[in-house]
Amino acid sequence: MADERHDSVLVVEDDAKLRLILVANLKAAGYDASEASDGYEAIDIATERTPDLIIMDLGLPGIDGIATTRTLKADPRTSAIPIIILTARSKPQDVVLGLEAGAQEYLAKPFDIAELMARVQSVHRTARSQKNLDQLNTQLEAEVDAKTRRLQLLYEFMREINLATSRDRILDLIVRCVEEMTAAQRISLLLRDVTGDTLVCERAVGIDPAVVDQIRVRTVEGIAGQVFRSGKTLSARAYGPDESTTYSSEAFLSTPLVTALETRDGIIGVLNLTNKTDNGAFNDEEIECIRSVADAGAIALASIEHRERLQQSVKVLLKTVGHLAEYRDEETTRHLERVTRMSRVLADALRQAGPYTEIITDEYVDLLVQAAPMHDIGKVGIPDEILTKPGALTDEEFNIMKTHTEIGKRVLSQALDPARPVPLLQMCIEIAHCHHEKFNGSGYPRQIAGHDIPLAARIIALVDAYDAITSQRRYKPALTHERAMEIITGDSGKHFDPALVEAFLRCQAQFDEIRGQYEETDINAEPALA
Fold first, then answer.
1. Residue of 78, 21, 87 whose CA lies nearest to 45
2. Which residues does residue 473 pair with via DSSP β-bridges, in sequence order?
3. The whole model's pTM is what?
4. What local confidence, expressed as pLDDT, does residue 7 receive?
5. What is the DSSP string of 435-482?
6. Residue 183 burial by CB count (10 A; 0-12/13-18/19+): exposed, middle or buried?
7. pLDDT of 108
8. Which residue in 348, 339, 381, 334 sits closest to 465, CA to CA?
9. Which of 100, 281, 407, 463 has the most CB atoms around it within 10 Å of its CB?
10. Cα–Cα distance between 199 and 202 in angstroms, integer?
């Protein structure tokens, strides 16, 4: 019984001679035996020491064996201890009561000591197997819980990263996800700089911020450099400080950020994790989850960078293209400057109060200001004799002039890829197509009304109308700011969205200031009003 040495048995027996015999035989068999002479003492010892097995006499003084057994089984601290009852009572119901109280085995007095020892060994073996099974189940449950939690974190990360619209947000999500997923106490996220020869620490956890600012690793040096060059994940239980860090760790993981988009060698950085709270190495499942986070983060970062470059190119292009219709008329660009600046003023006023405060974010205002110069881009398709006519247009000419909204939409839509939409380009299309629609549905080209008209187009409609009223044209003189206010207020709910008119009245002084600041110096102004 060498495998059972140091297992403990508590003997509860009021007969001192029998108790002595039982304890002696148990010790001879290799058990650590203790004894109690009554139920109360047995409860105290069992609660304090938690023996592996209890031999319980039913006929105890004070509190009998059945009551003692019930008390032990009702206590979570002692409920799992197997109990063998000894009874001198011959009635079957006494045995049944003991078993119902929670005992695993019984033996009637007088008994053969060899039989008792065999029962002890059998019950103890069964109890130990059950204990091992319970521990295994607990371990499996913990592993399942951990895997489920990692998968949930991975799912939430993928969902949030798909919604991320900035580089900083993506970097924060990567670090937060791996920190929660692995409980790593030190994390560093290094990205390749513009030269492609150095990795710069962009995010870190568990590292002195003063040190973080200094972490710059050549791509040919250290563990991070090795991972960057090879594109392979490295994991080990222990390592010392290298060029990429000033600390050592009992376990570390370093994995590349690999993207399927067009970047040099497809690798844009390295993610390092060290020092798990459980002091263990990173297991295979954790490594796969971390690699998934790194790959998804890399693709998101590359997509953001690609989109930002594309949007910057679109901004430059739109700023240039927006003046084409104006230059055909030999007009200055003051009109576009005024419309752009007034659009920002009106959007800021709408953001402060009214029904559109949640829609008009900083990003929305930036897009609106960039898209505003494109409102009349469709005039590039209008014949010169109509576009530059000094007098009023005939009905036929006016109908041709109105087609500039459809032309603008058609021209801009050719640059729109439905599979990769660009918000700025989409807003340009909305403005160019709908800035002559009226709130009551009497505008053109579609005669849509109310909130069916895109908000950006409604804003430009009011701003463009104000500028047209207060600017001199070939066919009319400029009207005063006060007269423009009267006209716009009178058209609230007809031509203009009432909420926009209210916002305009709150910021009208800024409109007047912009009008004066960017007043035309060349009165060879605009073509006939469309």
1. 78
2. 476, 526
3. 0.49
4. 85
5. TT--TTS--SSS---GGGS-HHHHHHHHHHHHHHHHS-BTTBPPPPHH
6. middle
7. 83
8. 339
9. 463
10. 9
Contacts of 168 (CB under 8 A, 6+ apart): none
| Three-class DSSP category at 15 | coil
Number of H helices and number of E strands within the chain?
19, 11
Q: What confidence score (pLDDT) does residue 241 get?
A: 53
* pLDDT number for residue 332: 42
Identify the sign of the CA torsion 484, 486, 489, 493.
negative
**pLDDT profile of the chain (530 residues), mean per 10:** 63 91 91 92 92 90 90 91 83 77 84 88 84 77 74 83 87 90 87 87 86 81 88 75 51 85 70 81 84 88 78 64 56 76 96 92 92 88 83 88 91 76 86 96 96 97 95 84 96 96 96 88 45
Name residue, tokens 């970097």. Answer: 171
Q: What is the pLDDT of residues 370-414, one digit of tens each?
A: 899 889 888 888 888 888 787 788 899 999 999 999 998 988 888
Interatomic CA distance for residues 396 and 369, integer angstroms: 33
Question: Whose CA is closest to 413, among 432, 394, 397, 399?
Answer: 432
d(CA 41, CA 23): 16
Q: Is 129 left (phi over 0), alpha (psi -120 to 50) or beta?
A: alpha
Nearest to 311 by CA among 527, 165, 471: 165
Q: Please, are residues 428 and 412 in contact by the beta-carbon 8 Å criterion?
A: yes
SS3 assignment for 109-151? CCCCHHHHHHHHHHHHHHHHHHHHHHHHHHHHHHHHHHHHHHH
Q: How far is CA 145 from CA 77, 139, 161, 453, in A?
A: 25, 10, 24, 51
Six-digit token string for 239: 């390592």
